[in-house]
Amino acid sequence: MKAWFKEKRKAIRHFLKRKVNGTKGMLSIFLALVVSPLLMSTFIFIEYARIQSIQELMKEVMGSSLYSTLGHYDDYVEERFDLLSISQKDDINTTYQGYMKANMNALGKGASIQSMEASGQHSLGSASILKQQIYEASEYTVMAQAMWDGFDLDRIKKKLDGLPGMKQLNAGAEVANKAVGYANDTKDMINSVKDFQEKAKDFKEKCQNYKTKYQAFQTAMQTVESIRNSGQEEGLPAAEAAADAAARELATATKELSTSLGNLYDASKDLKEKMEKVKKDLSEVKEATKKKKEESKEAATESAASTGTEIATIPAAGNGTGTEVATVPANGSTEVATTGTAADAEIPDGEGAETIGTDAYKWFEEMHKVTEDFANEQIQKGIDAIVEAEKTSLNNQATALSSFTASGHSMSELSSAPLGKIEMKGFKEDVAKYVDDLVDVLDKSATADQEGVKEVIAVGRLAQKLMDMKIFYDNSLDSNINPALLAHTSSFDTSTLLTASGFAGMLQDAIDFADACYQHPNVFKMITKLASFLINLAKFLAGLVTWMAEHFINLAKFLVNYQEYYHAFLLYGYAAYNLPNRTTYKKGSTLTGYSFQKVFSLAGGSDKGGKGGAMSDIASLGNNSGSDPMFKGAELEYMLTGANSEYTAQAGAFFDGYMLRLMVDCYAVFNSDILKALSGLGPVRIVATVIFLLLEPFLDMVILVNGGTQVLFKTKAYLSIEGLPHLAQDMAGILDLSDDQKSTLGGMFEKERGGGSSTGTEVAVYHDDPAKHGGQDGSGKTNDKNEMGYFPLDYTAHGAILMILCTPYDQYTDRMQNLIQLEAKEKHKKDFDFDINKAYTSVHSDNKYKLNIFMNLSPTLTGGFPYEKQKDLAY
After folding, report:
1. Which residues have C-beta within 8 Å of that of residue 547, sequence separation ≥ 6?
2. CB of 260 within 8 A of CB of 199?
3. Quick one: pLDDT at residue 157?
4. To which H or E segment does residue 324 belong?
């Protein structure tokens, strides 16, 4: 066995020596076995690196091609709106393939394309995409311009918080509604006075007739008695017959007197009942005011600690007590009460210029007092028993006289019941004189200041003329859009214009009441007019509050979510600053410098000059469609209203601005020192308050649409002693007003101003060439407007505020897409048919390619590795 192993070992050594030697140039099997796996691994790594390199190069090629494709953006959309979308002039896929083919040279022969496709996606027709682009476009530009214009977002948000104007208007509506009940009760009392007056006059006539008939009866009996005493029988029958006839006439007069006395007594009872009802009303108000007095003191303490000088919490009366609205005083108090359900029984009052219900309350109280004094003097205690006894005596006498025969009675019977003369002791015979005096006092109770009433009526007439001036739209902006061209159907709320049409009626109601108090006042007519006026006023103010609640829909949401408020300002600020409006379409520009005049020219606009549309016309305006391809310049107004007619859009935006001004002007108007000085007008001051409330925001809007500025939050009204000089200054540059109207405005209430002039020494700055983007003068202020309040803002900035308050996101994006669609379609109509739903903001590419073999030794060799790669790229 050992020998066998030895032999085998020698055979193997001999084989190895002969075959595995390497010294004779033969391939070493051992070396091949060892090196081949290493070589294979090396080739694998090389191929992996080549694949990775090709893939990275393909990414770069695709990315470069996509970037180049995105470089074909719509130059008009970019220049006009500062937004990016791929031009629709060329096909996206064709453009992309052209760049891909050119860029494939970078890959050499390492790979070959099998297929390549590109398609657009995420168009500006998508609301979320459009909003995102607007956010990016406006994050710096809008905020920078807002700061330039003095737009302090934080402070404005704080001052809008709580909607003081809506609280005041709502309180005014509640007050007017409550005052209607008081007015009706007082009217009933006055009606009872009038009825008592008529009954008193009839009572006086019947008393005089009774006396006359009794005297005739007495004379006839004296004649009978005289004939009897003379013993002459010849004339006795005739004398007795005459006495019998006189008795019958006296019986009739006695019955009539009894009836008249009963009527007068019933009228006195009715008057006392009506007086008691009014007294109860007044007691309720005093009780409620007394209760609220303590509450308002507590509210004042809390408010002073938390709100400082913020206008958002300034009360109607202006005494700094926070969340209050003015209430009717108890015995002349100037206390105010907090708003809410607990305040239904109060009529507001305030320090300075009392609110709507105060003067009515005081008038009701005064009329009740003089009527009560009259009743206490003329309707004595125990009148019931006295009148009942007198009626019994009169009825008994009438019965006796009805069957009276002179032959059976003597003159002596006329000195005692039932034939004796009855004297009226319950009511004075001349009570009618005292009732006439009472009515005369009541007629003059509203106001003794007839000159003041005349002045208020004159101001009301002026307000009517001003509010009927042609101001609601610029005649040059007259497009009626073809709805078929819109990306989305526009909707316009016509209730806005219907609400506006009610203003003229409200103003007329106010003047009618003042007229009833002028020259020949009639208390019943006055109280009737006042009740009617208060009913209409309550409905009107409630309508305003409802309109504001329905239209200022965004405010509550933004006030509790600051981030949402910030985003909203970016969106709405973008529209305000980048879209033309009636004040900027001639010389304004976008935040990136695109002239609005180009938009006007593109739309085929021509300068027609002047303005149109008055308050009396506004209800007839409708959302008229037409054939125009785009708006000429009222694009901001369209964003606010959604109207296809530029006239209607401007009118609607004017009214929206008016309502905003009405809300923020309430504080200043209710605290006008002129209203305080008009305290002698009594209830006529209600008329002045309503006129001021309606006229002040209208004057604001007239100035704004003429290129001026208004402080967003007023501390002083134009219609105040300190405000009238500012009004004269600001109106000086307005061509829409005649010189007579300007003179009348400047000369209003000279007596209340102590004869001072309202002519300012400076003229307000009206920017014929508005500062770039914002319409301000570069400092965010014009003239000395800061003396009037906070945040001087122009029409454009007011538009931004209105959009924040009124325009929901979905309506905003729909309307913005419509504007982009209309303008870009008109601009590109000669080259292609623009469609915002094809205005893509990103490109999706899908490429299929093959990695070629490393060494292509023969054309017959096939192989390689197929790959598919997708890539998206957006602006």
Report:
1. 495, 496, 499, 659
2. yes
3. 66
4. strand 324-325
